[in-house]
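Objective 1.3, modelling of assemblies. Example input:
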Amino acid sequence: MGNTETKIEFDSDWTYDPAPQATDFIKLQERYGLYINGKFKPSDNGRCFDTINPATEEKLAEVSEASEKDVDRAVRAAKEAYENVWSKVSPKERGKYVYRIARLIQECAREFAVIETMDGGKPIRESRDIDIPLAAAHFFYYAGWADKLDYAFPGRKTKPLGVAGQIIPWNFPLLMAAWKIAPAIAAGNTVVLKPAETTPLTALKLAEVIQEADLPPGVVNIITGAGETGAHLVNHPEVNKIAFTGSTEVGKIIQKSLAGTGKNYTLELGGKAANIIFEDAAIDQAVEGIINGIFFNQGHVCCAGSRLFVQESIADELLRKLQDRMATLIVGDPLDKNSDIGAINSKAQLEKIKHYEKIGVKEGGSIYQPECTLPEKGFWYPPTLFTDVSQSHRVVQEEIFGPVLAIQTFRTVDEAIQKANNTPYGLSGGVWTEKGSKFFKVTKAIRAGVIWANTFNKFDPTSPFGGYKESGMGREGGISGLSAYVELV
Amino acid sequence: MSNRLDVRKTYKLYIDGKFPRTESGRYYKWSGDKDGEVVNICLGSRKDFRDAVVAARKAFDPWQNRTAYNRGQILYRIGEMLEGRRDQFLAELTLQGAAKREATREVNGAIDRLIYYAGWADKYQQLFSSVNPVAQPYFNYSITEATGVVSIVAPEESSLLGLVTAIAPVIIGGNSCVVLASHSKPLCSISFAEVLQTSDVPSGVVNILTGQRAELLEQFASHMDVNAISYFGDDAGEIKIVEENASLNVKRASILPEKDLQKNGAQGPYHILKTQEIKTTWHPMGI
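Predicted structure (C-alpha cells):
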C-alpha cells in the first residue's frame, strides 16, 4: 500500500536560505591555562596544543597540556579544598553554590552553545536546545540534593568519597562535564575534571563560570590534556574515585589499572544499540525515531541506535521511507540553524568512520548514502545505511561512533530480542510498537540500561543513564547517579 | 545392629542440579582430625567451572522471570529444609572444628539469613525503583534487574553461614551463580547443595564447586560470560587478581569482608543491589 504514496519533490524551490548563528559576541582567549585552585595557570612545562573548529579546520585557541606535575597540583588542590573547606561548608550552602552554577550556565547559554558548536562540530540546534539546557538542568537537579542526602538511601546515611577524578569524552563536552561535576560536588566531594583534547573550550568556559560563582578554590579543578593526562589522573594515589565516560577499550584499561587500589569507580562506555521496529509501529514516527537515533550528533553518541531491526513484513516500505527522509537531511555548517548533521568531530574520527565504511563494503554490505554536497574544508561524512548485513558483520558488531546505520530484518518477537541481545554491549535500546503488552515484554527482555520506546535519545537529570555488560557500570542521573559519589554509612 | 557397617557419603560437585564428580578426576584428602574418617573431596577444575557457567547462563533467564513471590517462597523453602537437617550440619560443622555452641550459632544464623532474604524477594525493587519526573512529556521509570551470572568466591572460614551470606542476596535478586566453596571446610557446602536440590531451586541457578582458590580464582574473575564476581576475603594479592581479570569484560567486582558475618551489617538490601542493574525506560505521553 505504501508504494502508491507519492514522494515529496525536493528538487524545485524547497531549499532553505542560510540561517547563520552570529559568533561575533564570542570572546575566546588566545591561550587557556589549567584551572587549578581557582586560578588559570599555564602548565608546568609550558606545553600547549591547538583546538580547532572541525567544520573549518581553523584554530580556535591554544590549550595547556597538563603534565604529571600539573595533575598532582590539581589533585592536591582538590584534596586540600575537600579537607579544609568543602567538607566544612553546610549542605545547604553547598547546594546554593551548585544552584549558582546552574543559573550562570542558563545566563550564558547562547555563548556556551556557540562555543560548543564551534569546538565540536555539532549543529547549533542541538547544542542550543539539548546540550546546554540539559547541562544547566543537571546542576539545578543535583543542587537540590545537597541538603537532602539523608532521604536518598533508606536506612543509611551518606559520606562523600573525597577527591573525584573525572574524564569525559568529546561528543557532549559541557553536558558530560555537568553529569560529572554536579552530583559530585552536591554530595560533598571535590573534583579534578579532564575534558577531551578535541573539545576543551566549554569546560574551560565552565571554569570561568565556576570562578564567577565564587565556588571556593580547589573544589572544581579543570585540567586539559590527552590520554596521558587522563592516565596520570587515574593513577594518582590521592584520588578516591574515578568517573570515566568513553570507549569500552579505554574503560577496560582504566578498570584494570584501578585493580587493588580500593578506589571507587563508575564507567560509562560504548554501545551498539538495537532499535527494533515492529510491524504494528506507527511507521512515520518510527522513521523520525530511527533518524534521531542514529544521526543525532553525527552518530557520535554512545547510546546511538546503530543497529536497526525491522520486522520483515514492513521492511521494504520502511526502508524506502527512511531513504526518502535521509535525502532531506541537511549536512553542513553546524552554525547554520537549519543544519541537521554537522561536522565529524576530528580527522581521526572521520578516518575511523571511513575505515568502517570500507570494511562494511568489503564484507558484502550494500551501502546507501543520499546525494549531498559536503563542504570542502572540514571533516564531513554523509548519513549512511548498510543493508545486506548480518550479525557477524563488523559494522553490526562494533561501535563506529558515526552516522552509519546497519539494517537487518526479523520475523518474530523472540528473534528480534535474541538478535538485539547478541552483543557484548548493553547501553541502550529502542522499541517501536503500538501494542502495550509487546512494549512491556520487549523492553524488559532487552539487556540494556536505557530503553526508549516509541522515542529515542532522550535525556533528563532525573533519569538514570548507564550500561549493562561491557557498556559500563554505575548510573548517572537520578538517585542512582548520586550513589556513585557517596559512601553509605 | 551394632555390627552394622555405616554407609559413608561421597562428596561431589553440584552443577546444573546434578552431583557429578570433577571431570578432572582429581581429589584431595580431607579429614576432621588425625584419627577420623578421611573424605575425598573433588578438586574442581577450570573445565568444571566453565560447565557450571554454561548451566548458570541457561538457568538465568527463566529464574529472573520467575515472580518475586515465587523466588521468595523458594528461599523460604531452603530455610525450611536447612532447619530440618540441622543435626547433619551441626555434626559436619563440629567435624570441621567448630565448638558445639559455635556450630549452633552458625546453623541458626544461616537459617535466619535465608528467611531474612526470602522476605526481601518482593520488596527491594520498590526501594530502588523509581518513576522519574522528567521535564518532557514522557513517562519514565527505572527498575532493578538482575545483573546475570555471578561467580562467587565464598568465605573460607564460615563454611555454612558464609555460603548462605554469599548466595542468598545474589539469587533472591534473580541472578544465577557459580560458587567456589571453602577449601579447608568443604563438607557443609556439598550438604547445602543437597538442601538446595530439595527446595525447588531450579537446576543451574546455584552451582557449587570445591577446589583450590589459587587454581580457580583467575578463571572465576576472567570468564567472559560471567557478569559479576563476589569475592569474600582480604588477601591483597587475590583482590588484585579478581579486579584485574574482571576488567576483561567490565565485570562488576564486589570485595566483601569474611568477618563479622553474624552481624546485621553482613546482610541487607544494599547487598542485593550489588548484583542488580538499573534499567530506565522512556515512553511518550500523548498521541
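The two ends of chain B are 81 Å apart (CA to CA).
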